[in-house]
Specification:
Length: 592
Protein backbone atom coordinates (compact mmCIF):
# COMPACT_ATOMS: atom_id res chain seq x y z
CA UNK A 1 0.00 0.00 0.00
CA UNK A 2 1.32 3.45 -0.95
CA UNK A 3 1.52 5.99 1.83
CA UNK A 4 2.12 9.75 1.78
CA UNK A 5 5.15 11.42 3.38
CA UNK A 6 4.47 13.24 6.61
CA UNK A 7 6.22 16.58 6.93
CA UNK A 8 7.15 18.09 10.28
CA UNK A 9 6.72 21.79 9.50
CA UNK A 10 8.77 22.89 12.50
CA UNK A 11 11.72 20.92 11.14
CA UNK A 12 11.29 22.51 7.71
CA UNK A 13 11.07 26.03 9.13
CA UNK A 14 14.15 25.38 11.24
CA UNK A 15 15.95 24.23 8.10
CA UNK A 16 14.93 27.35 6.21
CA UNK A 17 15.91 29.76 8.94
CA UNK A 18 19.25 28.20 9.79
CA UNK A 19 20.44 26.87 6.46
CA UNK A 20 18.69 28.62 3.61
CA UNK A 21 17.96 32.22 4.43
CA UNK A 22 20.55 34.62 5.79
CA UNK A 23 18.07 36.60 7.88
CA UNK A 24 14.38 36.51 8.90
CA UNK A 25 13.98 39.76 6.95
CA UNK A 26 13.43 37.67 3.80
CA UNK A 27 9.85 36.99 4.93
CA UNK A 28 8.89 40.44 3.59
CA UNK A 29 10.58 39.78 0.27
CA UNK A 30 8.78 36.44 -0.14
CA UNK A 31 5.37 37.97 0.63
CA UNK A 32 5.98 40.89 -1.74
CA UNK A 33 7.08 38.47 -4.38
CA UNK A 34 3.92 36.40 -4.09
CA UNK A 35 1.88 39.61 -4.37
CA UNK A 36 3.86 40.65 -7.47
CA UNK A 37 3.33 37.23 -9.09
CA UNK A 38 -0.41 37.33 -8.31
CA UNK A 39 -0.70 40.79 -9.90
CA UNK A 40 1.35 39.64 -12.90
CA UNK A 41 -0.93 36.61 -13.37
CA UNK A 42 -4.02 38.80 -13.28
CA UNK A 43 -2.49 41.31 -15.67
CA UNK A 44 -1.70 38.53 -18.13
CA UNK A 45 -5.45 38.03 -18.53
CA UNK A 46 -6.43 41.69 -18.26
CA UNK A 47 -3.86 44.35 -19.03
CA UNK A 48 -5.96 47.08 -17.48
CA UNK A 49 -6.39 45.25 -14.15
CA UNK A 50 -5.30 47.20 -11.06
CA UNK A 51 -1.72 46.53 -10.00
CA UNK A 52 -1.43 47.54 -6.37
CA UNK A 53 0.38 46.14 -3.41
CA UNK A 54 -0.21 47.71 -0.01
CA UNK A 55 1.75 46.91 3.12
CA UNK A 56 0.45 48.04 6.51
CA UNK A 57 1.68 47.61 10.09
CA UNK A 58 -0.25 48.11 13.28
CA UNK A 59 1.60 47.16 16.43
CA UNK A 60 2.72 43.56 16.06
CA UNK A 61 0.59 42.86 13.00
CA UNK A 62 1.59 43.21 9.36
CA UNK A 63 -0.70 42.91 6.36
CA UNK A 64 0.12 42.79 2.70
CA UNK A 65 -2.72 43.18 0.26
CA UNK A 66 -2.54 42.68 -3.47
CA UNK A 67 -4.94 43.21 -6.34
CA UNK A 68 -3.79 39.93 -7.85
CA UNK A 69 -5.45 36.87 -9.25
CA UNK A 70 -6.52 35.42 -5.87
CA UNK A 71 -7.17 31.76 -5.05
CA UNK A 72 -10.23 29.49 -5.00
CA UNK A 73 -10.85 27.22 -2.02
CA UNK A 74 -9.54 24.27 -3.99
CA UNK A 75 -6.35 26.15 -4.89
CA UNK A 76 -5.88 27.15 -1.26
CA UNK A 77 -5.79 23.46 -0.27
CA UNK A 78 -3.57 22.57 -3.14
CA UNK A 79 -1.13 25.50 -3.17
CA UNK A 80 -0.96 27.08 0.26
CA UNK A 81 -1.15 23.89 2.24
CA UNK A 82 1.20 21.78 0.14
CA UNK A 83 4.90 22.38 0.64
CA UNK A 84 6.76 22.48 -2.65
CA UNK A 85 3.63 23.01 -4.74
CA UNK A 86 3.71 26.12 -6.89
CA UNK A 87 1.33 27.51 -9.50
CA UNK A 88 4.35 29.08 -11.20
CA UNK A 89 5.69 26.03 -12.99
CA UNK A 90 4.53 24.61 -16.28
CA UNK A 91 3.25 21.06 -16.87
CA UNK A 92 6.82 19.80 -17.14
CA UNK A 93 7.75 21.37 -13.85
CA UNK A 94 9.91 24.21 -15.23
CA UNK A 95 9.73 27.69 -13.74
CA UNK A 96 7.53 29.92 -15.87
CA UNK A 97 9.64 32.85 -16.77
CA UNK A 98 7.07 35.54 -16.14
CA UNK A 99 7.01 34.74 -12.41
CA UNK A 100 9.47 35.33 -9.60
CA UNK A 101 8.53 32.29 -7.55
CA UNK A 102 9.03 28.68 -8.57
CA UNK A 103 9.95 26.50 -5.62
CA UNK A 104 6.70 26.51 -3.62
CA UNK A 105 8.39 27.19 -0.28
CA UNK A 106 8.41 31.00 -0.08
CA UNK A 107 5.29 31.34 2.05
CA UNK A 108 6.89 29.19 4.74
CA UNK A 109 9.34 32.02 5.42
CA UNK A 110 6.46 33.78 7.21
CA UNK A 111 6.93 31.19 9.96
CA UNK A 112 10.41 32.61 10.59
CA UNK A 113 8.70 35.55 12.34
CA UNK A 114 5.11 34.44 13.11
CA UNK A 115 3.35 31.39 14.56
CA UNK A 116 0.27 31.91 12.46
CA UNK A 117 -0.31 33.08 8.89
CA UNK A 118 -3.74 34.27 7.83
CA UNK A 119 -4.57 34.46 4.14
CA UNK A 120 -7.80 36.07 3.00
CA UNK A 121 -8.32 35.60 -0.71
CA UNK A 122 -10.86 35.87 -3.45
CA UNK A 123 -10.25 34.42 -6.86
CA UNK A 124 -10.74 36.35 -10.05
CA UNK A 125 -12.98 33.53 -11.32
CA UNK A 126 -15.85 34.82 -9.19
CA UNK A 127 -15.89 32.06 -6.55
CA UNK A 128 -16.48 32.93 -2.91
CA UNK A 129 -13.77 34.45 -0.73
CA UNK A 130 -11.86 32.07 1.56
CA UNK A 131 -9.87 32.43 4.74
CA UNK A 132 -6.92 30.12 5.40
CA UNK A 133 -5.09 30.06 8.70
CA UNK A 134 -1.86 28.08 8.74
CA UNK A 135 0.14 27.44 11.91
CA UNK A 136 3.80 26.76 12.53
CA UNK A 137 2.86 23.42 14.13
CA UNK A 138 1.80 22.19 10.68
CA UNK A 139 -1.99 22.46 11.02
CA UNK A 140 -4.32 24.72 9.08
CA UNK A 141 -7.97 25.53 8.89
CA UNK A 142 -10.07 27.01 6.17
CA UNK A 143 -13.36 28.85 6.20
CA UNK A 144 -15.58 31.37 4.41
CA UNK A 145 -14.59 35.04 4.40
CA UNK A 146 -15.81 38.46 3.38
CA UNK A 147 -14.03 40.13 0.47
CA UNK A 148 -15.55 42.25 -2.27
CA UNK A 149 -12.80 42.44 -4.86
CA UNK A 150 -10.44 39.79 -6.24
CA UNK A 151 -7.03 39.67 -4.61
CA UNK A 152 -5.31 38.47 -1.48
CA UNK A 153 -4.40 39.78 1.96
CA UNK A 154 -1.78 37.99 4.04
CA UNK A 155 -1.71 38.83 7.73
CA UNK A 156 0.99 37.94 10.26
CA UNK A 157 1.36 38.69 13.96
CA UNK A 158 4.90 38.87 15.29
CA UNK A 159 6.07 35.96 17.36
CA UNK A 160 7.65 36.93 20.64
CA UNK A 161 11.23 37.97 19.89
CA UNK A 162 10.52 38.83 16.23
CA UNK A 163 8.88 42.22 16.84
CA UNK A 164 11.86 44.09 15.35
CA UNK A 165 10.89 42.78 11.90
CA UNK A 166 7.48 44.45 12.23
CA UNK A 167 8.66 47.93 13.24
CA UNK A 168 7.26 50.49 10.79
CA UNK A 169 10.68 51.94 9.99
CA UNK A 170 12.22 48.52 9.33
CA UNK A 171 9.29 47.40 7.20
CA UNK A 172 9.43 50.61 5.12
CA UNK A 173 13.19 50.28 4.67
CA UNK A 174 13.01 46.62 3.65
CA UNK A 175 10.08 47.09 1.30
CA UNK A 176 11.95 49.95 -0.39
CA UNK A 177 15.13 47.87 -0.57
CA UNK A 178 13.42 44.90 -2.21
CA UNK A 179 10.70 46.64 -4.16
CA UNK A 180 11.55 50.24 -5.07
CA UNK A 181 12.07 49.34 -8.74
CA UNK A 182 8.87 47.30 -9.10
CA UNK A 183 6.71 48.38 -12.01
CA UNK A 184 3.59 48.40 -9.78
CA UNK A 185 2.33 50.78 -7.14
CA UNK A 186 3.72 49.55 -3.84
CA UNK A 187 2.79 51.46 -0.69
CA UNK A 188 3.81 51.11 2.93
CA UNK A 189 1.39 52.74 5.39
CA UNK A 190 -0.16 54.49 2.40
CA UNK A 191 3.13 55.99 1.16
CA UNK A 192 4.45 54.93 -2.26
CA UNK A 193 7.90 53.34 -2.26
CA UNK A 194 8.01 52.46 -5.95
CA UNK A 195 7.12 54.00 -9.26
CA UNK A 196 10.10 55.94 -10.50
CA UNK A 197 11.31 53.03 -12.64
CA UNK A 198 14.91 52.01 -13.10
CA UNK A 199 17.30 54.97 -13.11
CA UNK A 200 18.90 53.62 -16.31
CA UNK A 201 15.62 53.55 -18.27
CA UNK A 202 15.83 55.38 -21.56
CA UNK A 203 13.01 57.92 -21.67
CA UNK A 204 12.45 61.56 -22.45
CA UNK A 205 14.27 63.01 -19.43
CA UNK A 206 16.01 66.34 -20.15
CA UNK A 207 19.52 65.94 -21.55
CA UNK A 208 21.99 65.40 -18.75
CA UNK A 209 19.20 64.48 -16.34
CA UNK A 210 19.56 60.77 -16.96
CA UNK A 211 23.28 60.95 -16.17
CA UNK A 212 22.61 63.07 -13.08
CA UNK A 213 20.04 60.49 -11.92
CA UNK A 214 22.51 57.66 -12.47
CA UNK A 215 25.29 59.43 -10.57
CA UNK A 216 22.84 60.15 -7.73
CA UNK A 217 21.80 56.49 -7.77
CA UNK A 218 25.42 55.33 -7.43
CA UNK A 219 25.92 57.73 -4.54
CA UNK A 220 22.76 56.48 -2.82
CA UNK A 221 23.16 52.75 -3.20
CA UNK A 222 26.91 52.26 -3.59
CA UNK A 223 28.28 55.25 -1.72
CA UNK A 224 30.60 56.72 -4.36
CA UNK A 225 30.56 59.15 -7.27
CA UNK A 226 31.42 57.00 -10.28
CA UNK A 227 34.33 57.77 -12.58
CA UNK A 228 32.01 56.88 -15.44
CA UNK A 229 28.75 55.08 -16.15
CA UNK A 230 28.49 52.31 -18.75
CA UNK A 231 25.13 51.17 -20.08
CA UNK A 232 24.60 47.42 -20.07
CA UNK A 233 22.22 45.39 -22.19
CA UNK A 234 22.20 41.62 -22.65
CA UNK A 235 18.94 40.66 -24.38
CA UNK A 236 19.34 36.89 -23.98
CA UNK A 237 19.34 37.33 -20.20
CA UNK A 238 16.67 40.04 -20.31
CA UNK A 239 19.31 42.19 -18.65
CA UNK A 240 19.55 45.96 -18.56
CA UNK A 241 21.49 48.12 -16.17
CA UNK A 242 24.67 50.05 -15.64
CA UNK A 243 28.26 49.46 -14.61
CA UNK A 244 29.67 52.22 -12.43
CA UNK A 245 33.42 52.64 -12.83
CA UNK A 246 35.06 52.99 -9.43
CA UNK A 247 36.72 56.37 -8.81
CA UNK A 248 39.39 54.71 -6.62
CA UNK A 249 41.68 51.71 -7.12
CA UNK A 250 40.13 48.41 -6.17
CA UNK A 251 41.91 45.36 -4.88
CA UNK A 252 41.91 42.84 -7.76
CA UNK A 253 41.71 39.97 -5.31
CA UNK A 254 38.53 41.29 -3.75
CA UNK A 255 35.34 40.39 -5.56
CA UNK A 256 33.20 43.46 -5.90
CA UNK A 257 29.56 42.98 -4.99
CA UNK A 258 27.06 43.78 -7.71
CA UNK A 259 23.46 44.70 -7.10
CA UNK A 260 21.15 42.40 -8.99
CA UNK A 261 17.39 42.68 -9.44
CA UNK A 262 15.35 39.88 -10.95
CA UNK A 263 12.23 41.16 -12.67
CA UNK A 264 12.70 44.44 -10.79
CA UNK A 265 12.85 42.81 -7.36
CA UNK A 266 16.15 42.98 -5.47
CA UNK A 267 17.91 39.63 -5.42
CA UNK A 268 21.22 40.58 -3.86
CA UNK A 269 23.48 43.51 -3.13
CA UNK A 270 26.59 41.37 -3.36
CA UNK A 271 26.56 39.15 -6.45
CA UNK A 272 30.18 38.27 -7.13
CA UNK A 273 29.88 36.22 -10.29
CA UNK A 274 28.30 38.73 -12.63
CA UNK A 275 31.46 40.19 -14.20
CA UNK A 276 34.66 38.49 -15.33
CA UNK A 277 37.39 38.53 -12.67
CA UNK A 278 39.45 41.15 -14.50
CA UNK A 279 36.67 43.73 -14.40
CA UNK A 280 37.21 44.61 -10.78
CA UNK A 281 37.14 48.33 -11.55
CA UNK A 282 33.36 48.32 -12.02
CA UNK A 283 30.30 47.74 -9.85
CA UNK A 284 27.06 46.89 -11.58
CA UNK A 285 23.41 47.49 -10.84
CA UNK A 286 21.31 45.37 -13.17
CA UNK A 287 17.85 43.99 -13.63
CA UNK A 288 17.64 40.61 -15.33
CA UNK A 289 14.49 38.83 -16.29
CA UNK A 290 15.96 35.51 -17.35
CA UNK A 291 18.78 34.80 -14.88
CA UNK A 292 17.87 32.26 -12.24
CA UNK A 293 18.12 32.67 -8.49
CA UNK A 294 19.30 30.00 -6.06
CA UNK A 295 16.59 28.59 -3.76
CA UNK A 296 17.46 31.08 -1.01
CA UNK A 297 16.90 33.76 -3.65
CA UNK A 298 19.96 35.59 -2.35
CA UNK A 299 22.41 34.73 -5.14
CA UNK A 300 22.54 33.94 -8.83
CA UNK A 301 22.33 30.33 -9.91
CA UNK A 302 25.46 29.37 -11.83
CA UNK A 303 24.48 28.04 -15.26
CA UNK A 304 25.34 28.48 -18.94
CA UNK A 305 23.24 31.61 -19.20
CA UNK A 306 25.10 33.26 -16.34
CA UNK A 307 28.40 32.32 -18.03
CA UNK A 308 27.42 33.84 -21.36
CA UNK A 309 25.97 36.91 -19.63
CA UNK A 310 29.26 37.42 -17.79
CA UNK A 311 31.08 37.25 -21.08
CA UNK A 312 28.71 39.71 -22.74
CA UNK A 313 29.07 42.17 -19.85
CA UNK A 314 32.86 41.84 -20.13
CA UNK A 315 32.50 42.84 -23.79
CA UNK A 316 30.59 45.98 -22.77
CA UNK A 317 33.37 47.05 -20.45
CA UNK A 318 36.06 46.26 -22.96
CA UNK A 319 34.15 48.23 -25.62
CA UNK A 320 33.90 51.21 -23.29
CA UNK A 321 37.67 51.18 -22.74
CA UNK A 322 38.49 50.85 -26.40
CA UNK A 323 35.95 53.61 -27.16
CA UNK A 324 37.74 55.98 -24.76
CA UNK A 325 40.99 55.57 -26.68
CA UNK A 326 39.25 57.10 -29.68
CA UNK A 327 37.03 59.70 -28.08
CA UNK A 328 38.66 60.88 -24.88
CA UNK A 329 42.34 60.02 -24.39
CA UNK A 330 42.73 62.39 -21.43
CA UNK A 331 39.95 60.59 -19.61
CA UNK A 332 41.52 57.27 -20.51
CA UNK A 333 44.82 58.37 -18.98
CA UNK A 334 43.04 59.30 -15.77
CA UNK A 335 41.31 55.94 -15.75
CA UNK A 336 44.61 54.14 -16.27
CA UNK A 337 46.20 56.04 -13.42
CA UNK A 338 43.51 54.77 -11.09
CA UNK A 339 43.12 51.23 -12.39
CA UNK A 340 46.46 50.38 -13.96
CA UNK A 341 46.71 47.06 -12.16
CA UNK A 342 43.38 45.78 -13.43
CA UNK A 343 44.07 46.83 -16.98
CA UNK A 344 47.52 45.28 -16.95
CA UNK A 345 46.10 42.03 -15.61
CA UNK A 346 43.64 42.14 -18.47
CA UNK A 347 46.41 42.74 -21.01
CA UNK A 348 47.88 39.35 -20.11
CA UNK A 349 44.87 37.61 -21.63
CA UNK A 350 43.53 40.00 -24.15
CA UNK A 351 45.25 41.41 -27.22
CA UNK A 352 43.10 44.48 -27.41
CA UNK A 353 43.98 45.39 -23.86
CA UNK A 354 47.62 44.69 -24.65
CA UNK A 355 47.42 47.29 -27.41
CA UNK A 356 45.79 49.71 -25.00
CA UNK A 357 48.58 49.29 -22.46
CA UNK A 358 51.22 49.55 -25.18
CA UNK A 359 49.72 52.78 -26.54
CA UNK A 360 48.68 54.54 -23.39
CA UNK A 361 50.35 53.33 -20.25
CA UNK A 362 53.66 54.99 -19.39
CA UNK A 363 56.41 52.74 -18.05
CA UNK A 364 59.68 53.48 -16.29
CA UNK A 365 62.71 53.37 -18.58
CA UNK A 366 66.31 54.58 -18.24
CA UNK A 367 65.54 57.24 -20.85
CA UNK A 368 62.50 58.69 -19.05
CA UNK A 369 58.89 57.60 -18.51
CA UNK A 370 57.18 56.72 -21.75
CA UNK A 371 54.69 54.32 -23.30
CA UNK A 372 55.92 51.12 -24.90
CA UNK A 373 54.69 52.48 -28.23
CA UNK A 374 56.99 55.52 -27.87
CA UNK A 375 59.84 53.36 -26.70
CA UNK A 376 59.47 51.05 -29.69
CA UNK A 377 59.34 53.87 -32.19
CA UNK A 378 62.44 55.53 -30.71
CA UNK A 379 64.58 52.52 -29.87
CA UNK A 380 63.28 49.61 -31.94
CA UNK A 381 64.33 46.65 -29.82
CA UNK A 382 62.68 46.45 -26.44
CA UNK A 383 65.20 45.53 -23.76
CA UNK A 384 63.84 45.11 -20.28
CA UNK A 385 64.85 43.95 -16.84
CA UNK A 386 62.89 41.36 -14.95
CA UNK A 387 63.07 43.06 -11.59
CA UNK A 388 63.29 46.61 -10.31
CA UNK A 389 66.55 45.70 -8.56
CA UNK A 390 68.04 44.61 -11.88
CA UNK A 391 66.85 47.89 -13.36
CA UNK A 392 68.43 49.96 -10.62
CA UNK A 393 71.68 48.05 -10.95
CA UNK A 394 71.96 48.50 -14.68
CA UNK A 395 69.91 51.54 -15.74
CA UNK A 396 72.57 54.26 -15.50
CA UNK A 397 75.41 52.15 -16.90
CA UNK A 398 73.24 50.88 -19.74
CA UNK A 399 72.21 54.47 -20.59
CA UNK A 400 75.88 55.47 -20.70
CA UNK A 401 76.44 52.65 -23.22
CA UNK A 402 73.56 53.95 -25.33
CA UNK A 403 71.28 51.08 -24.29
CA UNK A 404 67.64 51.98 -23.58
CA UNK A 405 66.02 49.67 -21.00
CA UNK A 406 62.49 49.33 -19.66
CA UNK A 407 61.98 48.45 -16.02
CA UNK A 408 59.87 45.29 -16.21
CA UNK A 409 59.92 44.89 -12.45
CA UNK A 410 56.50 46.35 -11.66
CA UNK A 411 53.54 44.02 -11.42
CA UNK A 412 52.75 42.39 -14.78
CA UNK A 413 55.16 44.67 -16.75
CA UNK A 414 57.71 42.07 -17.84
CA UNK A 415 54.91 39.65 -18.86
CA UNK A 416 53.28 42.44 -20.86
CA UNK A 417 56.55 43.31 -22.59
CA UNK A 418 57.18 39.66 -23.39
CA UNK A 419 53.75 39.58 -25.11
CA UNK A 420 54.51 42.51 -27.44
CA UNK A 421 55.32 40.22 -30.42
CA UNK A 422 51.64 39.21 -30.32
CA UNK A 423 50.67 42.64 -31.62
CA UNK A 424 53.75 42.99 -33.82
CA UNK A 425 55.45 39.71 -34.75
CA UNK A 426 58.52 41.60 -36.00
CA UNK A 427 59.10 43.17 -32.60
CA UNK A 428 62.27 42.00 -30.89
CA UNK A 429 61.99 41.77 -27.14
CA UNK A 430 65.00 40.88 -24.99
CA UNK A 431 65.73 40.63 -21.35
CA UNK A 432 68.79 42.66 -20.44
CA UNK A 433 71.37 40.56 -18.61
CA UNK A 434 74.31 42.02 -16.73
CA UNK A 435 76.56 40.04 -19.06
CA UNK A 436 75.08 42.00 -22.00
CA UNK A 437 76.61 45.11 -20.48
CA UNK A 438 80.03 43.50 -20.27
CA UNK A 439 80.10 42.95 -24.00
CA UNK A 440 79.72 46.74 -24.42
CA UNK A 441 82.70 47.63 -22.21
CA UNK A 442 86.11 48.26 -23.77
CA UNK A 443 89.04 46.05 -22.83
CA UNK A 444 92.13 47.80 -21.54
CA UNK A 445 95.13 47.69 -23.92
CA UNK A 446 97.16 44.41 -23.52
CA UNK A 447 100.27 46.31 -22.44
CA UNK A 448 98.38 48.04 -19.62
CA UNK A 449 96.79 44.75 -18.63
CA UNK A 450 100.23 43.13 -18.47
CA UNK A 451 101.59 46.01 -16.42
CA UNK A 452 98.73 45.71 -13.95
CA UNK A 453 99.00 41.93 -13.67
CA UNK A 454 100.51 41.94 -10.13
CA UNK A 455 97.74 44.28 -8.97
CA UNK A 456 95.05 42.11 -10.53
CA UNK A 457 96.46 38.94 -8.97
CA UNK A 458 96.46 40.57 -5.53
CA UNK A 459 92.97 41.96 -6.09
CA UNK A 460 91.68 38.55 -7.18
CA UNK A 461 93.17 36.91 -4.12
CA UNK A 462 91.25 39.26 -1.85
CA UNK A 463 88.00 38.56 -3.72
CA UNK A 464 88.38 34.76 -3.92
CA UNK A 465 86.90 34.39 -0.44
CA UNK A 466 83.70 36.00 -1.76
CA UNK A 467 83.49 33.89 -4.91
CA UNK A 468 83.86 36.95 -7.12
CA UNK A 469 85.97 37.52 -10.22
CA UNK A 470 87.88 40.78 -10.65
CA UNK A 471 87.84 42.23 -14.17
CA UNK A 472 89.37 45.42 -15.54
CA UNK A 473 87.49 47.30 -18.29
CA UNK A 474 87.00 50.84 -19.59
CA UNK A 475 83.44 52.14 -19.71
CA UNK A 476 81.16 55.12 -19.32
CA UNK A 477 80.30 56.83 -17.11
CA UNK A 478 83.90 57.52 -16.09
CA UNK A 479 82.65 58.79 -12.74
CA UNK A 480 81.60 55.25 -11.77
CA UNK A 481 84.62 53.41 -10.35
CA UNK A 482 83.21 49.93 -10.07
CA UNK A 483 80.29 47.72 -11.01
CA UNK A 484 79.18 44.41 -9.54
CA UNK A 485 77.54 42.19 -12.16
CA UNK A 486 75.67 39.01 -11.36
CA UNK A 487 73.97 37.08 -14.08
CA UNK A 488 70.97 34.88 -13.52
CA UNK A 489 72.74 31.56 -13.01
CA UNK A 490 75.38 33.17 -10.79
CA UNK A 491 72.63 34.69 -8.66
CA UNK A 492 71.02 31.27 -8.39
CA UNK A 493 74.28 29.58 -7.42
CA UNK A 494 74.99 32.28 -4.82
CA UNK A 495 71.60 31.78 -3.24
CA UNK A 496 72.04 28.01 -3.32
CA UNK A 497 75.34 28.24 -1.52
CA UNK A 498 74.09 30.59 1.14
CA UNK A 499 71.11 28.25 1.77
CA UNK A 500 73.45 25.26 1.94
CA UNK A 501 75.43 26.96 4.69
CA UNK A 502 72.30 27.43 6.78
CA UNK A 503 70.45 24.09 6.49
CA UNK A 504 71.07 20.66 8.04
CA UNK A 505 73.45 18.10 6.64
CA UNK A 506 70.92 16.00 4.79
CA UNK A 507 69.35 18.94 2.95
CA UNK A 508 72.77 20.49 2.31
CA UNK A 509 73.75 17.20 0.61
CA UNK A 510 70.71 17.42 -1.66
CA UNK A 511 71.48 21.04 -2.55
CA UNK A 512 75.14 20.17 -3.23
CA UNK A 513 73.98 18.17 -6.24
CA UNK A 514 72.88 21.43 -7.87
CA UNK A 515 75.99 23.37 -6.89
CA UNK A 516 78.04 23.60 -10.06
CA UNK A 517 81.59 24.93 -9.97
CA UNK A 518 81.02 28.47 -11.14
CA UNK A 519 82.59 29.65 -14.31
CA UNK A 520 79.91 32.33 -14.27
CA UNK A 521 80.92 33.88 -10.98
CA UNK A 522 79.70 37.41 -10.21
CA UNK A 523 82.10 39.97 -11.58
CA UNK A 524 83.59 43.01 -9.95
CA UNK A 525 84.30 45.24 -12.93
CA UNK A 526 86.85 47.97 -12.18
CA UNK A 527 86.52 50.96 -14.51
CA UNK A 528 89.93 51.91 -15.83
CA UNK A 529 88.46 55.16 -17.12
CA UNK A 530 87.94 56.25 -13.51
CA UNK A 531 90.75 58.31 -11.97
CA UNK A 532 90.46 56.74 -8.52
CA UNK A 533 90.62 53.22 -9.94
CA UNK A 534 93.76 54.19 -11.86
CA UNK A 535 95.37 55.26 -8.61
CA UNK A 536 94.27 52.06 -6.90
CA UNK A 537 95.76 50.04 -9.78
CA UNK A 538 99.10 51.64 -9.29
CA UNK A 539 99.30 50.37 -5.71
CA UNK A 540 101.77 47.57 -5.24
CA UNK A 541 101.40 46.77 -1.55
CA UNK A 542 99.14 43.69 -1.33
CA UNK A 543 97.53 44.85 1.93
CA UNK A 544 96.55 48.20 0.47
CA UNK A 545 95.32 46.52 -2.71
CA UNK A 546 93.10 44.21 -0.66
CA UNK A 547 91.73 47.08 1.42
CA UNK A 548 91.03 49.23 -1.66
CA UNK A 549 89.40 46.41 -3.67
CA UNK A 550 87.29 45.32 -0.72
CA UNK A 551 86.10 48.91 -0.21
CA UNK A 552 85.23 49.20 -3.89
CA UNK A 553 83.40 45.87 -3.70
CA UNK A 554 81.34 47.13 -0.75
CA UNK A 555 80.50 50.33 -2.58
CA UNK A 556 79.49 48.42 -5.72
CA UNK A 557 77.12 46.24 -3.67
CA UNK A 558 75.50 49.25 -2.07
CA UNK A 559 75.22 51.30 -5.25
CA UNK A 560 73.72 48.38 -7.15
CA UNK A 561 71.13 47.53 -4.44
CA UNK A 562 72.58 44.03 -4.17
CA UNK A 563 71.69 41.91 -1.16
CA UNK A 564 74.33 42.03 1.59
CA UNK A 565 75.25 38.57 2.91
CA UNK A 566 76.84 38.14 6.37
CA UNK A 567 80.27 37.73 4.72
CA UNK A 568 79.71 40.99 2.81
CA UNK A 569 78.67 42.83 5.96
CA UNK A 570 81.81 41.61 7.73
CA UNK A 571 83.93 42.75 4.81
CA UNK A 572 82.25 46.15 4.64
CA UNK A 573 82.94 46.61 8.32
CA UNK A 574 86.56 45.52 7.99
CA UNK A 575 87.30 47.74 5.01
CA UNK A 576 85.66 50.76 6.61
CA UNK A 577 87.73 50.35 9.76
CA UNK A 578 90.85 49.77 7.63
CA UNK A 579 90.23 52.99 5.72
CA UNK A 580 89.66 54.88 8.95
CA UNK A 581 92.84 53.56 10.43
CA UNK A 582 94.78 54.50 7.28
CA UNK A 583 93.33 57.97 7.49
CA UNK A 584 94.27 58.34 11.15
CA UNK A 585 97.81 57.06 10.51
CA UNK A 586 98.31 59.98 8.19
CA UNK A 587 96.52 62.55 10.35
CA UNK A 588 98.64 65.10 12.18
CA UNK A 589 97.89 64.89 15.91
CA UNK A 590 96.61 68.01 17.63
CA UNK A 591 99.34 69.85 19.47
CA UNK A 592 98.83 70.35 23.17
N1 LIG B 1 -0.66 36.59 -2.71
C1 LIG B 1 -0.96 35.48 -3.38
N2 LIG B 1 -1.90 35.50 -4.35
C2 LIG B 1 -2.22 34.39 -5.07
N3 LIG B 1 -1.64 33.21 -4.89
C3 LIG B 1 -0.67 33.11 -3.95
C4 LIG B 1 -0.29 34.24 -3.15
N4 LIG B 1 0.69 33.82 -2.31
C5 LIG B 1 0.92 32.52 -2.58
N5 LIG B 1 0.11 32.09 -3.56
C6 LIG B 1 0.05 30.74 -4.14
O1 LIG B 1 0.71 29.86 -3.27
C7 LIG B 1 1.72 29.14 -3.97
C8 LIG B 1 2.88 28.85 -3.02
O2 LIG B 1 3.51 30.06 -2.65
P1 LIG B 1 5.03 30.08 -2.17
O3 LIG B 1 5.40 31.47 -1.87
O4 LIG B 1 5.18 29.08 -1.07
O5 LIG B 1 5.83 29.51 -3.43
P2 LIG B 1 6.10 30.13 -4.86
O6 LIG B 1 5.91 31.60 -4.81
O7 LIG B 1 5.32 29.37 -5.86
O8 LIG B 1 7.65 29.76 -5.06
P3 LIG B 1 8.93 30.27 -4.26
O9 LIG B 1 9.16 29.28 -3.19
O10 LIG B 1 9.97 30.24 -5.30
O11 LIG B 1 8.58 31.63 -3.74
C9 LIG B 1 2.11 30.04 -5.11
O12 LIG B 1 2.64 29.29 -6.19
C10 LIG B 1 0.79 30.70 -5.47
O13 LIG B 1 0.05 29.86 -6.33
Amino acid sequence: MNRTFQVDLRGVVDLLSHHLYSSPRVYLRELMQNAVDAVTARRAADEAAPAEIAVGVTGRTLTITDSGIGLTEEQVHELLATIGRSSKRDQLGFARHEFLGQFGIGLLSAFLVADEVRVLTRSLDGSAAVEWIGRADGTYRIGPAEREVPGTTVELTAREGAEQWFAEETVTELCALFGSLLPFTVTVQGKAISGAGTPWRKDDRAPGQRMADLVGHAQDVLGFTPFDVIDLNVPEAGLTGVAYVLPFPANPAEHAGHRVYLKRMLLTESADSLLPGWAFFARCVVDAGELRPTASREALYSDGLLDSTREALGEHLRGWLVGLTRTDPARLSRFLEIHHLGVKALALHDEEMLRLVEQWMPMETNVGRMTLADFRSRHGDVRYTLTTDDFRQMAAVAAAQGLAVVNGGYTYDSEIIARLPLIDPAQSVRRLEPTDLMTRFDSVPPTTELELRPFLVAAQRSMDQLGCEVVLRSFEPASLPVLYLVDRSAAFQAELRSTKDRVDELWAGVLAAFDKPADDRPQLVLNHRNALVRRVCSTREPEKVALAVESLYGQALLLGYHPIRPADAALLNRSFLGLLEGLLDRAVPLED
